[in-house]
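Suppose you are handed a protein chain with no further information: no name, no annotation, nothing but its sequence. What can you learn? This example shows the usual starting point.
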Amino acid sequence: MKLDILVLSVHPDDAELGCSGTILKHIAMGYKVGIVDLTRGELGTRGSADIREQEAAAAAEILGLSVRDNLAIPDGFFENTREYQLQVIAAIRKYQPEILITNAYYDRHPDHGRANELVEASAFLSGLRKIETFEKGEPQQAWRPNLVLHFIQDNYIKPDVLIDITAYWDKKVESIYAYGSQFYNPQWENEPQTYISTPEFINVVAARASEFGKSIGVKYAEGYTSRKILGVDNLFALK
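A reasonable first move is to predict its three-dimensional structure. Written in structure tokens, the prediction is:
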């Protein structure tokens, strides 16, 4: 299945926090969007990998994704190595996105920056035809996205691109709260409390979206940085 936009982010729930408004907006515009999570989030303080899988599926329904996959790369212990690059390359070639979205290039959580490096390297290598990858035993064609965008996470980074998500804010929040084991949920009060499980955390997410929105004269926006691969200036995701 060819996608217009593919989100390759390291943990289930990263995409919902970082770019779900953009996902919802472009699906409403008729584009095909999918998420491939790099890991199962098995090192998370609360819940389990199996629970995260169920939550990711629930969030995918809320977002209306065309597909959601998981590469099951080891959470916390992956590096930007040939082994993991080949897995990411195969995912990129499978879905042939015009635009790729991934984690911030640095952040409070070290997995985020390392995932960015892994996806950036793989996005370039995916276009080299002499690198062989296979899907169901069949060789894949080389494919390089036109643009790689990095959403902005806990640490503030000045964005290169801002996308108005005001009309999709409530649905974004709904997709975040699909992860009931991770974010504020009274039913999980006996689990260890974390930075993101407090009731105040969603206010942090809203404040960032409001700050970005103010910059372009709207209520809420999501921000991105980019290192353009082919220098494409007028792709649909920038609208």
